Amino acid sequence: MDQTFLAIVFGPCDKCSKEKPLRPVSVKSEQRSYCSLCVEMGLKLHGLIPPGALLINRYLPGQSFDEGLSNHQLFAVHQVAERVEALGQFVMKTRRTLKGHGNKVLCMDWCKDKRRIVSSSQDGKVIVWDSFTTNKEHAVTMPCTWVMACAYAPSGCAIACGGLDNKCSVYPLTFEKNENMAAKKKSVAMHTNYLSACSFTNSDMQILTASGDGTCALWDVESGQLLQSFHGHGADVLCLDLAPSETGNTFVSGGCDKKAMVWDMRSGQCVQSFETHDSDINSVRYYPSGDAFASGSDDATCRLYDLRADREVAIYSKESIIFGASSVDFSLSGRLLFAGYNDYTINVWDVLKGSRVSILFGHENRVSTLRVSPDGTAFCSGSWDHTLRVSA
Amino acid sequence: QMERMIVSMQDPDMGIKMRNQRLLITVIPHAMTGNDIVEWLIQKYGISEEGECPVTGSWHQGVTGAAEPPRSPQSLSAESLHLGNLIVKHGYIYPLKDPRSLVLRADESPYRFQTPYFWTSTKWPATELDYGRCRRAAGTNTGTDPFPAPLSATASLAAIYLAKKNIRKQGDLIEHEKDNYNLLHKRINHTWDFVVMQAREQLRAAKQRRRGDRIVIDCQEQAYWLVNRPPPGAPNVLEQGPERRNCHTTRVQLTKNMDYYKREIEYCRKAMARTRVKSSICLEGYIKFNEQYVPHDPIMSGCLPSNPWITDDTTYWAMNAPTVTNPTKLRVERWGFNFSELINDPLGRAQLLEFLKKEFSAENLSFWEACEELRYGEQSRIAEIVDSIYQQFLAPGATRWVNIDSKTMERTLEGIKTPHRYVMDDAQMHIYMLMKKDSYPRFLKSDLYKNLLAEAIIPPETKKRVFPFMRKQRHSSPSPALLLPAGDAEERSRSPSTAPVPEEES
Fold first, then answer.
1. How many helices (H) and strands (E) does chain A have?
2. Cβ <8 Å between B299 and A331
């Protein structure tokens, strides 16, 4: 816990009588002791704080800003973000619709060339598209259904995918007429339960996987050897993301045990863990600077966790959103958080202000996957309505 | 969670006002119009924007801050219409006028709340006919076999429902209902008489009710079956993904032995000792990052000449290709943000190399690149790469000897005896920091960089086309998969889109 510089008195609040840390407050020139919640409410009533502005402990001008004392007051983001300009009207439209999957689209990934994508679906089909022209370039049928994970190699020369077959397979992409793509397939990862997520590291030769058996693992593609395994989740691991940091040695994973854990790839140890969600974490994504990450969960909220402060710093939720978030991603500057939900919509959140900027309709079934393109010009969303949409 | 919303909708004070609605000539009690539903949702949604949530009592939900842009009435109602629609699709509210289609219309059409008995979350008790409630088998729901075996309570009730319909409509059922009816008949042949008897009983009892009640019950049932047995082609709202948290046997168990606890203790110790940065400082960090990067974010600030997805013009990509002779101004500016931006951009890295050559420290960059190759390379080549790095950069008298402090050098040389992927990490980090703290600031002040900035281009914005309906030709680009080192790329790069798209079975 950080140092606090005020001597805090603990006791029953003069207003709500709850046992809380108290602040001295003068009301009608009388000294009282209120808990922080009552202070905020009082100030709001007197118009000293504009409605909607959220404070933590900074309720009297001139007083120093110090850390929140309890877990209730988490919206530090907004306070500092008061200085940031509000966003204007936001218009995004679907620019491309990719049709061709015969069943629910479960996962997708962008190629580094900013226009190609690979997508996988429930019927076992994995398709590589040039989403700009909407042409299909490659197609593979996996021997299993529910291909829940797919990834594009950094070089653009291979793809990886897996699902209910408990394996992750790497397919080199080839345009040769007589080549059977499946012939060159490499089975890389072996888990004891379904594969939920996979991602290449900085090169084509290493793959990181997450599985329903509660572990993540790092594999060498060429030999299929297990390089490192990561144990610690108490339930299925549903998602992972690699850190963009300079040292490139950590990644974050989220699971059904409501925990998001940060791992050191070299030692296999968990470095940090966060457990504030109320339900399964479906998706995690690093903030572009690498200092924080966002998570989307079945409890219908998205949350932002800061790694250096080691805590949750923002919650993105609304009463009218009652369906879980299946997939999240940041825009290039990290100002916007795109989140796809199981109620068929995509909500766009202002990361700094904590408010929703826009809601995008268009899909006819739940949005299962969402990724922003590598250069940030557009984002692609895949859905159970068999289509993928690129919006800008 | 939907149910919480439904319950609050039905709240006598704050909920939707229900009146007797007219449906043709009959009066239906306790109903509401589609419009009412949408309005109530807007209202409630409006409430949650204020900041205080009477329902949950916490500060978490729905706080937006004054900065949320004013929502037009249309967008508010689009969202509430969508939400209302979902509620209807999940069977919590059903329409009285057009019971076949589970859609919410924001007009005067009447709706009613579905009885909790029929809620999708209600678990149906077992009957003699069944062996317990069968869950839909994950992943194998092919759609042609809608009823899991053995027979469940819902199947027998479905049979009764369809039998009733059959009798009433005298055999004139819809196609898919006929199919289901026949399937069920085959399945529970032995108790079919029972089913028909039940159906007849229910019909007779119904005749004795008032017309209003009858309509209501009919619609209720209809809606329930539409949700639970959707006609072919309609999306099934009850579908879930593959089961999670099943199969404990396949879970990799964390054996709670000595090792485990030792690790836990170590983790907790590290966690306590870790320096935590104040949230306020982290947040300042976000704001700074935001200020720096927002002009570079195409979604926030647009991109010049134009966003290829919007105008179908790929000039933006051509101008920002990894290797290009004239980089754009934004790109060159970005190299000044921090060292990793410079080194991760191939063009930036090349410029850095040029600069380092002038300073006679180019071997640093080459060493760093070689270490990266080691870290992310193939397992089988590790020994080979380590050796090559040693020969080139670390051996005494090496041609491109790098300047590392003696301690790190000692450790690295020791580690080379048992080469592994991370053996060069310390040395690599040292050199990286050297470049970052020493060479990089000089690079930014150098003439080389200043010239780059001056010569960098700002692409002009594409003029809006006069005839916007003439869509530009969308050209395909060569796939990266074609860029093989052997130089085959030249031959095949012309039109990959005409290459056959083979459908592969594996």
1. 2, 31
2. yes
Q: Are A159 and A174 in contact (CB under 8 A)?
A: no
Q: In this structure, what token pair is assigned to residue B107?
A: 């007009």
- Residue B23, beta-bridge partner list: B26
**What residues in A contact B299, CB-CB < 8 Å?**
92, 331-332, 336, 372, 376-379, 392
Q: Which of B423, A269, A253 is nearest to A261 (CA)?
A: A253
Q: Which residues of B touch A172 (CB under 8 A)?
A: 481
- B194-222: per-residue pLDDT in tens? 777 877 887 788 777 777 777 777 777 77
For residue A232, the distance in angstroms to the closest alpha carbon of chain B comes to 7
Average pLDDT for residues A102-109, to the nearest whole number? Answer: 94
Q: How confident is the model at residue A252 (pLDDT cuts 50, 70, 90)?
A: very high
Dist CA A124 CA A182 (whole Å): 13
In chain B, the residue whose alpha carbon lies closest to the alpha carbon of A356 is: B68
Give the pTM. Answer: 0.79
With an 8 Å Cβ cutoff, is A279 touching chain B? no
Q: Do B378 and A222 touch (CB under 8 A)?
A: yes
Domain boundaries, chain B: 1-48+75-118, 321-455
Closest B-chain CA to A320: B45
How are beta strands A135-141 and B503-505 bridged, if at all? parallel
Q: B321-455 adopts what CATH topology?
A: Regulator of G-protein Signalling 4; domain 2 (1.10.167)
Among 1.10.260.40, 1.20.58.760, 1.10.1740.10, 1.10.10.10, name the CATH number for the domain at B1-48+75-118.
1.10.10.10
Query: From B423, which residue of chain A is nearest by alpha-carbon distance?
Result: A266
* Domains observed in chain A: 1-47 (no CATH), 95-391 (2.130.10.10)
Q: Which residue has 């992310």 as its token pair?
A: B376
Secondary structure of residue B194 in the 3-state scheme: helix
User: What are residue B359's phi and psi, to 5 degrees?
Assistant: -95, 5
Long-range own/partner contacts, residues B87-90 (CB < 8 A, 24 or more apart): B87/B2, B87/B5, B87/B6, B87/B37, B89/B227, B89/B237, B90/B2, B90/B120, B90/B227, B90/B237
From the list B251, B278, B298, the residue facing A67 with the nearest CB is B278
